[in-house]
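Exercise 7.
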Amino acid sequence: MSVVVDAEAAELVLANCLEKDEFNLFFRKLLGSGSIMAPVSVWRPRRKQMAPFFGITNANRSQDSLLKHSDNLVKHLESMADTEPFSMFDIFYPYAFDTIMELILGLTLNSHEEEDTRVLKAVPDCFNSVAYFLFQPYLQFEIIYSRLPIWAKFLNDKQNIQRLIAKVMASKQKLYDGKNNNVDANISLKSLVDFLYSSPDDKKFSIDEIREELFVMLFGSTILPCVSLCFTCMMLAKYPDVQEKLIRELDEESSRYEKGLTKSRPHENKYLEAVIKETFRLYPSVPTVSRKIDKDIEMPSGTVLPAGAACFISIWGIHRNPKYWGPDADSFRPERFFDSPPKHPATLMPFSYKSRGCIGMHFGMLSLKVILASLLKEYRFLPNTTTDAPVRPLYDIILKDADNYMIRLKRRDRIQQ
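Solution. The predicted structure, written as tokens, is:
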């Protein structure tokens, strides 16, 4: 096994070795063969088919939905402003869940008011169960884990998610049966499930393939954006000068366009993007990715990684490598993306890198921009305590905050705007 913290070496591995390593086989056993965990022979054709749905053009068309959910979140936070600290994840997650449910399954939900929260709770509970199994290797033997109460809970959570997917698929099957499904892949469809059912006959996914993809997309797309949003808000609370500079940028744009971030010009919020990138750099939601070395590869250092070995790419290590980011690599400074950012593209890869990188990266980045712009139009983020306490990252499958993303919220003084 080898660990890479060098951008050039990481690019070499990720460009040439597409197969996931043995570490990911247990993921596949628990969660199925959706594209995230699938072998290359399964992943490649599915990725090619789904790519148009997750492209930049379709992402930009999703802004109405993102703004709707962001406005709902802003209203929900009214009662929490100027009060006691609260966990951002506990509040933000239901809205992230609703956004993804609309994008993937075409469902319009209001999870904060729903009585049945089984699926809402099932996704993070599944995450926690998988982490529990993965980081205790002796539990990866079926004869052991299948006898534990946590296994029964995991299966129940997984079944709750799968039942909802099956219900949606049954309704879509009726809708698309007998229709001409040769829909142009570039036409925006309401949801991923519609897109998959509308594929041309020669590219159509089977029922099992659709089920696998919907499950793994729901599993991977609800928690990660929420975690990134929470870390970004924590950084703004911790660095008020950065927050004020960002608010000024958004206020200037708001005077020209509606909602603080317009549908047509999200790229104009340069400092907002720099703040998000700097948070990604210091707190990547997936701090490590792994690959199976399928042929001998010589690293830039001259070291040869032998075929059959496992290689872990430390995104955390690359993002904090002083070779690329300078002596202040551990400092939060969004201005570095204007001053002299590293030239090598693999020095920043919060969505992984190369062809097996995150297919939803455009949606992920845009959703963070829209939500942050909406929140900062009404509120300022304040630290949980008056002391300058450091962030305490916790790593299981993803990077988390050991203190559960606690923060305070203050209403903005509209007279000052």
